[in-house]
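Problem 3 from the worked examples.
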Amino acid sequence: MGTRQTTRETDDAVEAVESARAELQVKGRAAVGVTGDSEAPPLRRALAESGVGWYPMVSLGLLLTVDQFQSNSVVVLGPEITASLGMPRSALAGIVLVKTLVLTLATLPVASLVQRHPRRAAICIVTAFAWSVMTLGTGFVVTLWGLFLVMVLDGASSASVQAVHEPLLLDSYPPPIRVRVMAFYRGAQAAGQVAAPLLIGLCTAILGWTWRGVFVAQGVVCILVALFATRLRDPGFGRFDTERVRDVVRGKGAARAEVDDSQVKLGFFEIAQRVLLIPTVRKILVANAVLGMLIVPFVTYLAFFLQEEWGMGPGSRSVFSAATSLCGVVALAAFGKRDEMLFRQDPGRLVRLAGTLLGIGITTLAVAIFTPVFAVMVVLFAVALAMTSVILPILHMAMFSVVPAHMRPHLAALAGIALAGVGGTMGILLLSGVDRRYGSAGAILSLAVPGIAAGLVLHRAARTVNDDLDRMVGEIIEEEEIRALVQSGTTLPMLACRHIDFAYDQVQVLFDVSFTVDEGEMVALLGTNGAGKSTLLRVISGLGLPSRGSVRYLGADITFLDPQRRVSLGLKQIAGGRATFPGLTVVENLRAAGYSLGRDRKAIDAGIDVVFEAFPRLAERRNQPAAQMSGGENQMIALGKAFMVRPRLLLIDELSLGLAPKVVGELLEMVRQINAQGTAIVLVEQSVNIALSLVDHAYFMEKGSVRFDGDAKELLGRDDLLRSVFLQGASAGLPS
């Protein structure tokens, strides 16, 4: 009982820290920029105090500006390009779609490249030179396939813009000015939509160049900007936010858990799963996808609308595009400081504002389509684009604020896939059909439906952003609390689940479950059918990911670690039912379990011999497939596999279900032997009789919550928990 007493002391220490968490949470929110006040410091002063200066935001802004040259010019010059190359406009729309898909998918390997090492600046510079060459090369294509090649390569290299620009910006500047920095960056995007058509107008209307000369000129400008950006440097992950939240709890030094950080550091897809569990992220990604249906097809069909409905040539279309995009720059400049103040007060209000602006923009766009007066049409388009241009920096600021800094490139990649890959593809497919039947005006008007849907989704996201921000801050604080406990010499439990919530789709199964197991301890997890016992084991073993709470193993956070990686750490589960490979023989099943022992065949053979010694029946049927054996014999194989690999923690689900008493007795003896080797065991059982004959400590679950945590014998006195079905024969199973 001494070990469990140590755990109680540890739990008391953690609870004492949690009692002061409210104050830490407020400080943590302030560290990520949510201070509750509305006073945003002047941008110039804040830049000077940060010691960063203008260079990162200007460099990345210029890169974003010129990165759009090829795409914008292909859209504006679409009628001329299709006529010159002898291709239908549907083929051009298809090439734009493929480029968009390549761009969005290429964000995944880019995010993977930077997840462990902060080298985002180098990737930005290298890829900038790559897309500059592709923009230049567009002017020399002579076939449809040549255009396809340069656009696809441009899209692949431009993936860095989507995946790393904004995360790099957020890590380069402190929270009090980030919304304005993001607005500046998105203003550069709008400026690119001004610069590209102006350059087109200069080259075509004044200099008399063809569309080919336009791309050559733009390529040269891109190369010059890439040269300007070569002094970009990566400041590291979370310099101004995550690390400052950590400093709220501790000083500079930090102790480590028993498990090496490299063993539990999340991989690419583990991080992707992690961020997709955040409600705000899911909602904003859905809104991004719906916005993609609006934005990507809109810019493709706008040039054809202006040509068909208003007879505008390339020069006048470029002026129109520049003028309306300039309104976006003005809107971003006007809203930047206001958005900063809203974020400091309440990030939820900022997201709600984005939904409102989207509604205004969509309504204005619909009216502009039917306006018979040219000047009014231009004004309405300008207002619509101004409203929608403010939305993306708001959404991305809210989205990035609820995830740790090192996960932002992955989230940026997912946002790009949602916006351009999912939304853009669906939008172009939708508009292609509408265009054939109702023309370009009808195609643009049909975008009102996804726009309204996105606005509704954003209003729902506004309800969760504050909770998710607090949760992210709380996770960082908890990590530092654990490190502080280790540093103070406090012994941590082998397994600690804290405040676990879990749901299957919309049905919540676990509610605020906390559960601990000490080194070498055997614990019973009891409860009624449907109480959540097996679900809790799934969360511990990684087969299910919680919507809230943490799972710590030997002090390390393994909440979102893949199941196979948990096995390599010494955590193994015997699932309920048959935990064997039915088509394999007994020996083959045992050898399959020995993979964690590496290439040590002697150790595997010795382990198999020990299993056969413990279970003579298995030795007799060593070459028989598991499918031909009884349920009890299959459980013997499952226990034998665990005995061979000697895990540090073994989770056993329903060991005795449907088995004869004699067989159960043999299995229990093997469980005792496994525990005697030093393996901690969690035994999930409905039979109190069996469970209490093995353990001293028990948990009892009912309706997804822990109702009892204490000495196993004390559980017998809880008539409110142990109904007659559980009490039957329970006292007979206890040692006298």
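Problem 4, a separate protein:
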Amino acid sequence: MASPQTGRRRRRRIDPGPSGNGHLAEVRAAEEAVAEVESARERLRGVARQALGVTGTEGAPPLRESIRRSGVGWYPLVALGLLVMVDEFQGYALTVLGPEVAAGLGLSKSALAGALALKTLAITLALLPMAAYVQRRPRRAAVSIATAFAWSVLTMGTGFVVTVWGLLFVMVADGATTGSVRAVHQPLLVDSYPTDVRVRGLSFYRGADAVGNVLGPVLVGVCTAVLGLTWRGVFVVLGILCVMAAAAAVRLRDPGFGRWDADKAREALREETGGTGSLHDEDVELGFFEIAQRLLLVPTIRRVLVAFAVLGMLLVPFTTYQAFFLQERWGLGPGSRAAFFAAMPFFAMAALAAFGRRGEDLFRRDPARLVRLAGVALGSAVVALTLAIVSPLFALTFLFFGAFTALVAVMLPALNMVVFSIIPSHMRPHMAALSGIALAAVGGGGGLLLLGGIDRRFGTAGAIVSLAVPGVVAGLVLRTAARTVDDDLDRMVDEIVEEEEIRALRGRGERLPMLACRHVDFSYGQLQVLFDVNFTVDDGEIVALLGTNGAGKSTLLRVVSGLGLPSRGTVRFRGADVTYLDAERRLRLGITQIPGGRAVFGPMTVVENLRVLAYSHGGNRRAVEAGLDASFEAFPRLAERRNQLASTLSGGEQQMLGLATAFILRPRLLLIDELSLGLAPKVVGELLDMVRRINAEGTAVVLVEQSVNVALSVVDHAYFMEKGEIRFDGRAADLLGRRDLLRSVFLEGARQAMPSKNGH
């Protein structure tokens, strides 16, 4: 069984044995090139961190000086600030005028909250396609402008609805277009300015949002109390103002991904390494869901997303219930509620103004301190919220609600700065989308369900007080996230360093191995199975991967083929990083796995099993037919049974059918798991002959076996695994002398197997 240990192990010494001459010596030379990449990580990590803005010192220059030095100017900051300022006009108008809108359309309190939840859901669903749309081409500015005009028209249209269904339509459509604010605004802002501007830039952006939260209620109050407009007229006026803000932002441009951080880091590394040129391979560029999977494997990101989900239970339904609380507890009408909501953002603006410069210093010195600050801010916000509800005086309620607003305002730019800095720059829209989903859909939906039940039993005040529980939980989660920030930042830096070092090696004409797995960890949930595994396969070689049952051999194959994603380490194929590439795309690159046991579709015939692989040739009928002919030529028994169901074949014939896939797919690397499992020696011999033939045609083969005599009859290079670690890497003949590894159950017949190799 695999070891249940989940922590980092002390690395054991691997005895490679004599390297010898010939092909294995070439493998060692290629491994040296990979080792050079690893040594570059430690040597160049500091250079990359400096370029990313983590200097270990404090003392950020004044904001005006940094913006002037960047040559970008204030326009992106002001334009995005205007858009986020007017984005919430519809939402705030619905919050302040909630009782009036509900009465006008015949809605209950919970029904209005549910309608707002549908808008939140629409925002959440829009995040994914928007992030996917901008991931390959930098067009975030165009998306921001187009959607701004769309939600402006929809805000205006809210004033013309006459039915509940009409209200639902404009709210859902507004939410769908508003998704751009969550998905692309902050990534666009981060990429528009240097690293020493970003915390203050994000704080400015949150401050603009706070200004919008002031203007929204103020405009509602002016329109109702001064101009005497109904709630319908209010939405028309707000929509016109939104159109004006969208028009002011039409000069926004997307600067590209990572212009000020990742690109700077790469330039600095090229100066250090002498690397030139760039390697851009669309075949290994991650797709949307591959990027999402990649992000979810980052420990800090997972913790922050959990915190956002719990935080969403606190924030999303809060404003709706807050309006009803002010009406029920303190008797505030529309005008008074508008004044109350307009005053709250001033607390946020004051907090953000004080935080911006300090946040820059914290990030420069240690990004983890920003996460710890966010956790403390959230815990303090929960206390302030509880005190606001139980306070006997309205003045105290006002002040505690203001403190709550200020603390939450500081928390969000702190977290966004950290999470955007520990991931590759082109993944920032995806991170924004995942954050929005966690906050709005998961957390907001859960919060509405929670508050709906509590409100009916304990009233509005009791429902709001109950939000303290998820707030405390989110604060505790954020405290744990601070422990992983440095490691995750270094992991991202190492990826940049490795990429640039690979470019430099290729520029110097160095040869890299076909497959290089470096420092791979893998876990099934909390059970860690692979520990710091290094595994190399060169072009055209056959490698045996040996070990006891449960040693992690099959798991390592899953990591190589893309069926499992490592929690740490990299997988490179032909020099390209394929660590997070889906299994289907690895198949197209030339990585094919034949799983252990009977790798066939039982209800299908032999021919159908082979034809099902036709999609890998893009519908090329000639290639498929050539593959079928080659398969039947190699395995005459399969030709005789071509129309027979695969489930009726013998075990050996099913393994033949599995091997026949190599003649159709023509892989560069073939992974065979337990070829001899449950088969007679004669059948195994026939299958090994086919493995040799496949290898002779240029395919590298990894042969996973428990049977040493089977594996060593066809290989020169062997690995031995035990309890998730590589214990031996060297010549197959040298493995026979390692009695500490090859226990008696493996030794039987192993020495007799070696001479048979010379007969082939």
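Solution to problem 4. The two ends are 36 Å apart (CA to CA). The chain is about 65% helix and 10% strand.
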